[in-house]
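Researcher: Structure prediction, please.
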Amino acid sequence: IDLPASDLYDLLTGAMVAVDKSKGGVEKLAGGYLSVSNGKLIAKATDRYRLIIGTAKAIREVTDNNQGELDQVFISPESVKALIAALKADKAAIVRLDLSGDDLTLTTGGGSVSVKVSPAQFPPVDHLLAKFEPNLDGGQVRLDPKLIGSFAKIPSDGGGMLLSFNDKKGVKIDIKHDLILWDILLMPMRLKA
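Model: Predicted structure follows.
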């Protein structure tokens, strides 16, 4: 897959905000997930409180008409940091992602970096995103300010965050980006009466 370095940089930095960094956390939540399907690059992460899924609206293939596919893989935070470091050095370039076995190679104009990945399935979350309808008129929701603040790290085009509340599904957060569609949920802390 070939795509602009800035798109991949924004996807990785945005989605990785939700990686589970807790000690003794669930191993499959301690990293992110990458996949390419139907011409869209998808990066996902969750720590059970935050869910972030970033989808590139368009992958701009520069070599031929084959958009390529990448089965979903798990990528550790250390591997993400290595990719981000390579992308920072050459954000204006078109980069290439190649998967061979358990090696994901990022090739930039300045060289390449390979990281280990493993095939994995992201926890099922479609039911959380499906038909999210705000329904908390006049009610109260307590939100962790550290978690809300972490969303400021997600690349955007400005305009702030639009928060929509649902007492069963949490808080849906809309952040605008010209090339990435962000699906973001924050699970609320329940208040006892």
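Model: The first strand starts at residue 2 and ends at 4.
Researcher: Thanks, that helps.
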